[in-house]
């Protein structure tokens, strides 16, 4: 069992491509004929999260970065406010169970299991803790980037990974810090991928207040919630945005960018953070 204790320099353990995929035989129909070939599919598994000795939630995910996953999840749901709230973190040898001991209030723990609002993807919810924090939050930072920088980072982000190339079955999230350092995570669920990458940054004790988040998939309300909860001022996707996503971003100070391509992008809210070269 992999273990961490409070005060240690936490770092995430990544599994291999082999562990995240399974090779199978597929019968492909093409031009009136079947032909058999070997192919990779993603190996999704049920991961159990435990908090202070009680089962918290089960998520369908891949084994990679589950330490970061639970850290990002607990921060996103406002169960913990900083990494220092975690006293210990343990991962079972098979990678399917993650155990956290943390300093949390009884109210925060109770709210985790009630007042849940189902989101538009992956059956993930936003709990009462997150909603309460989100409702009164506004990102006022003047952090900005040149349009060429945003699109250049997008071009790099769009380059396929080995895991996506082999399976076509993962979402990806990347956080780029002010100095150009980036962290990246993949998962079968876009919410999982975002929580993982946020966890990775947090485990390295980096500042998210001057960063930009790149995601795959649509930019809906829950994507904005995650940005606000972690004070990330800019979020970008090559995909579409939703009305509720625009509304939330406008009200809470997030620069929302969709349909980002090689030479263009749509900036839906707080465009002052995008500087023309």
TrEMBL record:
Main location: cytoplasm
Protein name (database record): Sulfur carrier protein FdhD
Family of the protein in this entry: Belongs to the FdhD family.
Gene Ontology biological-process entries: Mo-molybdopterin cofactor biosynthetic process
Recorded GO CC terms: cytoplasm
HAMAP family according to UniProt: FdhD
Classification lineage: Bacteria, Pseudomonadati, Campylobacterota, Epsilonproteobacteria, Campylobacterales
Residue numbers annotated as active site: 122 (cysteine persulfide intermediate)
Residues that coordinate or bind Mo-bis(molybdopterin guanine dinucleotide): 259-264
Purpose of the protein: Required for formate dehydrogenase (FDH) activity. Acts as a sulfur carrier protein that transfers sulfur from IscS to the molybdenum cofactor prior to its insertion into FDH.
Annotated source species: Aliarcobacter butzleri
UniProt keyword rRNA processing, yes or no: no
Subcellular location(s) of the protein: Cytoplasm
Keyword Cytoplasm in record: yes
InterPro entries: Cytidine_deaminase-like, FdhD
Pfam families: FdhD-NarQ
GO MF terms held by the record: sulfur carrier activity; sulfurtransferase activity
Keywords: Cytoplasm, Molybdenum cofactor biosynthesis
């Amino acid at each position: 069992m992999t273990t961490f204790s409070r005060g240690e320099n936490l770092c995430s353990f990544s599994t291999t491509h082999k562990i995240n995929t399974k090779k199978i035989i597929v019968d492909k129909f093409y031009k009136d004929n079947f032909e058999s070939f070997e192919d990779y599919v993603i190996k999704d598994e049920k991961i159990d999260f435990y908090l202070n000795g009680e089962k918290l939630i089960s998520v369908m995910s891949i084994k990679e970065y589950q330490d970061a996953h639970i850290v990002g999840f607990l921060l996103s749901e406002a169960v913990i406010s900083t990494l220092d709230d975690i006293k210990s973190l343990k991962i079972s040898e098979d990678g399917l169970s993650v155990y956290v001991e943390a300093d949390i209030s009884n109210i925060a723990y109770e709210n985790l299991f009630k007042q849940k609002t189902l989101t538009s993807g992956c059956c993930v919810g936003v709990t009462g803790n997150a909603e309460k924090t989100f409702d009164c939050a506004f990102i006022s930072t003047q952090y900005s980037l040149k349009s060429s920088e945003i699109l250049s980072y997008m071009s790099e982000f769009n380059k396929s990974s080995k895991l996506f190339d082999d399976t076509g079955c993962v979402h990806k999230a990347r956080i780029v810090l002010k100095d150009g350092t980036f962290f990246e995570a993949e998962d079968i669920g876009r919410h999982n991928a975002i929580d993982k990458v946020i966890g990775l940054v947090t485990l390295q004790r980096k500042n998210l207040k001057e960063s930009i988040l790149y995601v795959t998939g649509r930019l809906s309300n829950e994507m904005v919630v995650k940005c606000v909860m972690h004070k990330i001022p800019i979020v970008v996707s090559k995909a579409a945005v939703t009305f509720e996503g625009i509304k939330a971003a406008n009200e809470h100070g997030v620069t929302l960018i969709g349909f980002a391509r090689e030479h263009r992008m749509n900036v839906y809210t707080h465009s002052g953070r995008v500087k023309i070269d």
